[in-house]
Design goal:
By secondary structure, this protein is an alpha/beta fold. It contains 26 helices and eight strands.
Length: about 600
């Protein structure tokens, strides 16, 4: 029985494997079009999408097991033009021919080969397939997930009745060993209806307030670039700009937009020009309730428009991503606290880590990341969070098991890099591990790699400046860290970046200037013991011994294990310049009352 395969519509094969790593797998512009497929269709599948996705995966796995394939729900419910009399051979033919058609162009050849070698040639192990295709195992797994997800989505679309077409639900990730589906919660447990993906949003066209028509392109560019920047944030599912443009200039309720586009959040904003100043407003709205979750307003001097656009969108993307994580963490705790999956635990971990940077927060966040990894050992965000929280504890001289924590973080960061070699944040995390391993030259290269992958990644610029400090080039630190602050002026790590600047000034003998930066660090985050200790030492060097003693007492409560001996023993670099500067500062710590050992 020959299978008729729906012809792939223009734009369906939207990206090759490399580009797929740059943004979420389920970008809206990759959705199959709503036009009727060429093949005749039967009744809408009775399967919920989560079950449909699992059935496609099982069918691929069982493609050479006719007895298992005959019991697959795809045959029981019917997909595409398979009738009730169809059997395992017809289902196998449908899958094979659909893969050949759907991934038929040159850009998708690698995705097609990954599916064919993994499922259509028996007895090949995944490691063998990766080797045959000259892919790292992590890259192979991502290609496999991308191809499998797009195949399932296409089959689902092709099997629906057009006149009763429901909203497209989110695509779940691979089910875990305990049977729970990771990734998006595709079906609402309360209503049985498809639910929007987590961290899903649309950036509406920004309003041009009081500006001339010649400013329209700049204002539209803000929304477009912001959409691109957000789509590159981990886990974010962003509606394409072309879809969002349909709402330009239309006063539509955000709840209606959420229902029509299948997103949980709407970002709207405006740009107002007044002479040499430009004011930017942005609001993040819960598309379910219509409630405002976050708002930001700031002014910029009107200079080079492209530079200003990049600076504004980079800043907004970082802040919005953090707010999305916090909102989704609250939603999971409110709606299904008894059935958290790996993604929920990961969101809880990052929300805790962003909310309260301290030793206790690092340990609390790490427990969430550990819970996520027990459910999904390949969760890159959880691996990075696990490593980052270990490194925060180590690099603030608060670890009781420095070698053990560095080893655990190194294993997690290395695994994350193997799974996502083009992830700029993974290179940053690995760089912090190398920094803790007293290898600042190697760490410097990782931070440069991260900037090469994402030039607007503020944290990479900040750590680049810190590594130059450890290499005896403290005079270069400020410029790099100030670039990080320019890119993300309200970053949760802002306190640490002022600490980097202050530390470099103190080591260069500019103690008064360094104290100013240290005070900013302490004001932003009074819970970080290391900045308190350094402030105490700097105050002592400046002759302010009474205040130094008071600050030292606070620091000792926050980090009771910190001593001068520990600080000296964990020197990051053997640079003679750095060590000489460090020796001078040790005297300030003694004057402030920091214990010797």
């Amino acid at each position: 029985m020959a299978m008729m395969i729906p012809a792939c519509q223009p734009g369906m094969n939207a990206q090759d494997g490399a580009a797929a790593l740059e943004r979420p797998i389920f970008d809206a512009q990759d959705m199959p079009p709503a036009a009727a497929p060429a093949a005749p269709m039967v009744a809408t599948p009775a399967l919920a999408y989560a079950d449909f996705f699992a059935a496609v995966k099982d069918a691929l796995r069982d493609i050479y097991s006719p007895d298992l394939l005959s019991r697959n729900p795809l045959l029981l419910h019917g997909i595409c033009n398979l009738g009730k009399s169809a059997g395992p051979q017809e289902l196998k033919a449908l899958l094979c021919e659909t893969v050949g058609t759907l991934f038929g162009n040159a850009r998708d050849e690698k995705l097609r080969r990954v599916l064919e070698l993994t499922y259509f040639q028996p007895a090949l192990k995944q490691e063998v397939v990766a080797h045959r295709l000259s892919l790292s195992f992590g890259t192979y797994r991502r290609h496999l997930g991308t191809a499998r997800d797009r195949l399932a989505r296409w089959l689902w679309e092709s099997s629906r009745v057009l006149q009763a077409q429901p909203e497209l639900p989110s695509t779940p990730e691979t089910p875990t060993k305990n049977g729970e589906v990771e990734g998006e919660t595709a079906i609402s447990h309360a209503t049985g209806e498809p639910t929007p993906p987590r961290l899903s949003l649309v950036v509406l066209p920004f309003m041009n307030i009081g500006g001339s028509a010649k400013d329209d392109n700049f204002v539209d560019g803000i929304a477009e670039t912001l959409t691109t920047d957000l789509a590159r944030c981990s886990g974010v599912w962003a509606i394409s700009r072309s879809t969002a443009l349909a709402y330009k200039g239309k006063p539509i309720d955000t709840r209606q937009i959420g229902r029509e586009l299948g997103v949980r959040y709407v970002l709207e904003g405006s740009v107002q020009n007044a002479g040499e100043r430009t004011r930017f407003n942005a609001q993040l709205v819960d598309a379910e309730s219509g409630a405002h979750l976050w708002a930001e307003r700031f002014d910029k001097q009107r200079t080079n428009l492209l530079d200003m656009q990049d600076e504004v969108t980079t800043r907004l993307a970082r802040e919005v991503h953090i707010e999305l994580i916090a909102a989704e963490s609250r939603r999971a705790a409110r709606e299904h606290p008894d059935r958290l999956d790996a993604v929920d635990h990961t969101l809880h971990g990052w929300a805790a880590w962003y909310r309260h940077r301290s030793l206790e927060a690092a340990r609390q966040a790490r427990r969430f990341f550990e819970a996520a990894l027990r459910l999904d050992e390949y969760n890159v965000d959880a691996l990075l969070g696990f490593a980052d929280t270990h490194m925060s504890e180590v690099n603030m001289y608060a670890s009781d098991d420095r070698a053990g924590q560095i080893g655990a973080a190194e294993a997690a960061a290395t695994k994350a890099l193997a799974l996502a070699p083009d992830n700029a944040n993974a290179h940053v995390t690995y760089g912090t591990v190398l920094y803790a391993m007293c290898a600042p030259e190697h760490a410097l290269r990782e931070f440069k790699l991260a900037i090469g992958l994402d030039g607007n990644l503020a944290i990479a610029h900040a750590y680049l400046g810190l590594m130059k400090f450890f290499l005896g080039r403290a005079g270069e630190t400020r410029a790099h860290v100030e670039e990080a602050i320019r890119l993300s002026p309200r970053d949760p790590l802002l306190f640490r970046w002022h600490f980097f600047i202050g530390l470099s000034d103190i080591y260069l003998g500019r103690v008064v200037r360094g104290i100013e930066s240290m005070r900013k660090s302490v004001e932003i985050n009074p819970n970080w013991g290391l900045s308190q200790f350094v402030l105490a030492g700097a105050l002592a060097l400046a002759g302010l011994l009474a205040e130094a003693a008071e600050v030292c007492a606070v620091a000792r409560r926050l980090a009771p294990d910190f001593t001068i001996a520990k600080y000296r023993a964990e020197a990051i670099s053997d640079s003679p310049v750095y060590l000489a500067q460090r020796e001078c500062f040790d005297g300030g710590l003694r004057l402030a009352g920091v214990p010797e050992s």
